[in-house]
Amino acid sequence: MVHNLLIIGKKSFLAKSLKKNISIPYKLVSFEDFLEKKNKYLKKFTHIINLTSNSKFVLNKYNSKNDHDFIIANRIKKLNLVFILISTRKIYKVKPNIKETDKLEPKCNYSKNKLLAEKKTMNILKSNYLILRLSNILGFESTTKRKLHYTFMDRFLASVKKNIIYKNPGVFKDFLSAFMFVKILNKLIRLNSKGIYNVSFGKKVYLDKILNWLNYYNTNKVNKVEFKKTILDNQDSFFLNNYKLNKEINLNFNLKTLEIDCKKISKKIFHEK
Q1: What is the pLDDT of residue 145?
Q2: Of 5, 47, 9, 12, which is closest to residue 27 (Cα–Cα)?
């Protein structure tokens, strides 16, 4: 079967990673361009992925007018397309080894809205959806300016500008490089996978280790100081269980893979600095 992917979101960081690394034929459009497309054009694709959002969806209480996922699902509900919805681990209660079936406990407007977007999409599309609950995605695109909310990478970049690395002894989270994410997406599309998946490394990754890898090519003298919550991140430790994903596509990632990717990111950051 020939697969064709429509990527919605020209300005997003993940869209730029997909453009460079996806092995499936694709077209890239803005959300506004998508809304103007006719069914004849959309039927050319087997999959559609949404990488757009807006500040009202991220910051405010839910309103379907601000939900791009809901709008896209409604637009394609009569077409035989698989909609790939990018969700977040923030819908879960924070703990280690989080499974897709574990307790959902969204706390911020963004995570509450994403959970509602998931539910509405499933109701509209019945089975033609692929929901990917992402953890921290690591990567760097110097041309990405627009920010709706700040990520781990944003906080890292802000700290190194001050020549500071914050120590986080014992704190662990779940990380994937953007390159790892694209490899996973490639496989899921080729297998015509549907349903809900945690997209994650699936193991504890300690922050101090990640920060050292990301700072690897920094030639400036860096001061390592004690953690400050408002500057870097929170101290909640968690990781997502990716057994379901691994069973579907047979992941071959390990800590060395992540280290190599982080050092590539570091080289790009400090080469372009």
Answers
A1: 56
A2: 5
Bridge-partner residues for 98, per DSSP?
240
Of 36, 120, 43, 113, residue with least CA distance to 82: 43
pLDDT tens for 1-10 read 799 999 999 8
CA distance 166 to 214: 13
Cα distances (angstroms) measured from residue 221 to each of 109, 152, 160, 178: 39, 21, 10, 28
CA distance 21 to 179: 7
Residues in the chain: 273
> Residue 230: its pLDDT value, please?
43
- Helices 255-272 and 207-214: crossing angle, nearest 10°? 40
Rounded to whole angstroms, the Cα distance separating 154 from 144 reads 11
pTM over 0.85: yes
> Rounded to 5 degrees, what are φ and ψ at 83?
-95, 125
- Give pLDDT, residue 155: 87
pLDDT at 232: 43
Where is average pLDDT lowest: 3-17, 122-136, 143-157, 233-247?
143-157
For residue 231, pLDDT over 60 is answered with no
Residue 46 one-letter amino acid: T
Separation of alpha carbons 105 and 92, rounded Å: 5
For residue 145, count CB atoms less than 10 angstroms from its CB and return exposed for 0-12, middle for 13-18, buried for 19 or more. Answer: exposed
The count of other CB atoms within 10 Å of the CB of residue 108 is 13
